[in-house]
């Protein structure tokens, strides 16, 4: 085991590992040890150790950055009552060694260090006392609301993998409420829906109890039907007709990290069982567990300590399909910007209406939750496969490398497994095992409520084309749709240096191609048409041939507080390369800019400009083959004049 963990350490970024091994190690070891103390069976202990190793593999293999780790730890803090001991920082070497041996029975070197627990670990405030950190959020239960559709299509091995993944999420302080959707099976079989749900519920509970130390519970009496009459027009759509009538049947298991399994059935005022829609159940639980529903019993305060952080849709069809990407799948959806477009695409392409129903349900659930919450649409196979050990093909004797677990990656980063702004050539292949359904599943889709995206000029009215000689372009400081002071503030916050606004306006006068603004000026891009100096000297009127103008990304900025898991950078970049300049755009960056790794992954090519501090990036597919165009691009990237108000050498 120690050897395996040493191998894992070598595959993770050192700065991230330092953060993860300190906090996840402390948390997971305490939870695992707590469970093992109640298990005297030697086989059970061996299984727990193997699953503990599996747990760490998936955590480390998620490859979260240090920023991701900080954001996760700032949100999911283990509480004192769960750790069963006070938070103490140990410094003595002997205490560290004794603690290591006590937890695992193996000297694990530096992996598990008894440092400060996750409750007091990284925040962005530098002078906050530990006691205050422990008190803030103490007792809060973070919940992932999981909907499992068509469990009868899931074989036992896949179900076991799903159960293991769910148990790992619980170890990472994300409690699970699992909703069963057996509508398809009820229709196919001559059997009462209550019997179908009870049979599948028992099967799922048995699988969960194999991996989750605190087990699982089948709960079929927690929901009530408030009315079978049509909802009045004045009642919001998201309120539905189902309510959580007995909260304690769900909150009590959650408090001890057990997993409640809830069928889509409810009881009316006469105590008669009713088959209700899964959408109604999901909305009712979202309202109740996020504190938005009225509690019938005023003494029941348990729901005040719960918050819904994730909606997870385990569906044989996987994520949302699309014809606009090479892998035929949406990997990220910004609802504020893309809902109408995706709805129209699904309807026009004749895709399953189930995809549209799922998207609609997710939108309604996220509308009730904070902006940081997200939803993941994923196939059971993709959710389970990365939880298994590496597989060996007996025919060729090759052991395949284990895949990252999308659910654990999403929990740590709140981002999709792959970036939505990556070019098609850099998309990894979809290695999901084919589903047992009639259609193959698509790659998982992360959905966020997101933010609106403003593009000026509006692409729905006019394309971004080179300006006619002698004609002015839009003026950033005199346009009704652009708040120039906020735009300047965004640039200065992102680059951490002051902009000489007047100099900048003079430089880009009559050159602006367009502006992209995400949300409330949380991110943005300014794009220009630039004249190559390889051309003959032109008059101040700019009578250059439009075809020789170079599309140039002049400023790309994201507020520091919005960098990381918010997805702002992906939203802006994707709009630029897929909508505004689908035929290609270039930009430059200082060679020591830490953002260059992100640029390298999203560009079609790069070139270090000799005798300069700049690296040129481009998204054109055939730039190198066109000598004249190449020289124009190099000329522009060499000669752009900076407009910063200071003289410090910072990344552009």
From TrEMBL:
UniProt keywords, alphabetically: Acyltransferase, Amino-acid biosynthesis, Mitochondrion, Transferase, Transit peptide
N-acetyltransferase domain segment(s): 471-642
EC number: 2.3.1.1
Places the protein is found: Mitochondrion
Keyword Transit peptide: yes
GO BP terms in the entry: L-arginine biosynthetic process; ornithine biosynthetic process
Pathway entry: Amino-acid biosynthesis; L-arginine biosynthesis; N(2)-acetyl-L-ornithine from L-glutamate: step 1/4
Name of protein: Amino-acid acetyltransferase, mitochondrial
Species assigned in the record: Aureobasidium subglaciale (strain EXF-2481) (Aureobasidium pullulans var. subglaciale)
């Amino acid at each position: 085991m120690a050897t395996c963990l040493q191998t894992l350490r070598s595959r993770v970024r050192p700065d991230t590992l330092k953060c993860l091994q300190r906090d996840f190690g402390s948390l997971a070891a305490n939870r695992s040890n707590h469970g093992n103390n109640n298990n005297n069976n030697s086989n059970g202990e061996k299984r727990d150790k193997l699953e503990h190793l599996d747990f760490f593999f998936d955590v480390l293999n998620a490859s979260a950055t240090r920023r991701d780790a900080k954001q996760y730890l700032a949100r999911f803090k283990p509480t004192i009552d769960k750790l069963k001991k006070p938070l103490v920082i140990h410094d003595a070497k002997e205490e560290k060694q004794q603690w290591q041996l006590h937890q695992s029975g193996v000297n694990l070197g530096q992996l598990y260090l008894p440092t400060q627990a996750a409750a007091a670990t990284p925040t962005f405030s530098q002078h906050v006392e530990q006691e205050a950190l422990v008190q803030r959020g103490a007792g809060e239960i973070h919940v992932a609301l999981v909907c499992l559709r068509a469990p009868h299509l899931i074989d036992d091995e896949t179900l076991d993998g799903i159960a293991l993944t769910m148990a790992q999420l619980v170890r990472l302080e994300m409690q699970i409420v699992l909703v069963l959707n057996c509508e398809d099976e009820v229709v196919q079989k001559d059997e009462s829906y209550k019997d179908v749900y009870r049979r599948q519920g028992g099967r799922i509970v048995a699988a969960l109890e194999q991996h989750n130390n605190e087990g699982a519970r089948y709960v079929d009496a927690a929901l009530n039907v408030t009315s079978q009459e049509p909802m009045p027009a004045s009642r919001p759509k998201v309120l539905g007709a189902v309510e959580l009538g007995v909260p304690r049947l769900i909150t009590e298991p959650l408090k001890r990290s057990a997993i409640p399994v809830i069928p889509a059935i409810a009881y009316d005022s006469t105590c008669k069982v009713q088959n209700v829609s899964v959408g109604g159940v999901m909305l009712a639980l979202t309202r109740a567990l996020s504190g938005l529903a009225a509690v019938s019993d005023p003494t029941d305060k348990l729901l005040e300590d719960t918050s819904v952080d994730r909606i997870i849709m385990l569906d044989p069809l996987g994520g949302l399909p699309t014809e606009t990407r090479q892998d035929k799948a949406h990997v990220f959806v910004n609802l504020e910007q893309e809902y109408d477009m995706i709805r129209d695409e699904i309807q026009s392409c004749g895709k399953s209406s189930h995809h549209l129903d799922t998207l609609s349900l997710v939108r309604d659930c996220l509308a009730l939750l904070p902006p940081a919450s997200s939803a993941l649409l994923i196939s059971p196979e993709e959710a389970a496969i990365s939880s298994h050990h590496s597989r060996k093909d007996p025919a060729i004797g090759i052991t395949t490398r284990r895949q990252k677990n999308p659910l654990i990656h999403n929990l740590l980063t709140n981002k999709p497994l792959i970036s939505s702004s990556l070019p098609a050539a850099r998309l990894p292949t979809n290695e999901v095992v084919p589903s047992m359904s009639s259609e193959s599943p698509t790659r998982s889709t992360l959905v966020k409520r997101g933010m609106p995206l403003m593009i000026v000029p509006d692409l729905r009215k006019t394309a971004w084309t080179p300006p006619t000689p002698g004609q002015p372009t839009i003026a950033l400081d005199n346009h009704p749709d652009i708040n120039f002071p906020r735009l300047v503030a965004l640039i200065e916050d992102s680059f951490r240096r002051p902009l000489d606004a007047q100099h900048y306006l003079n430089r880009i006068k009559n050159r602006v191609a367009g502006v992209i603004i995400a949300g409330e000026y949380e991110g943005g891009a300014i794009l220009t048409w630039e004249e190559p100096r390889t051309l003959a000297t032109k008059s101040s009127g700019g009578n250059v041939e439009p075809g020789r103008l170079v599309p140039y990304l002049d400023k790309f900025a994201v507020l520091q507080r919005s960098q990381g898991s918010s997805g702002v950078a992906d939203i802006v970049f994707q709009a630029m390369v897929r909508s505004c300049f689908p035929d290609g755009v270039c930009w430059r960056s200082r060679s020591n800019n830490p953002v260059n790794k992100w640029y390298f992954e999203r560009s079609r090519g790069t070139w270090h400009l000799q005798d300069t501090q700049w690296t040129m990036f481009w998204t054109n597919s055939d730039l190198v083959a066109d000598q004249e165009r190449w020289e124009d691009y190099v000329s522009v990237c060499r000669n752009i004049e900076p407009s910063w108000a200071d003289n410090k050498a910072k990344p552009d």
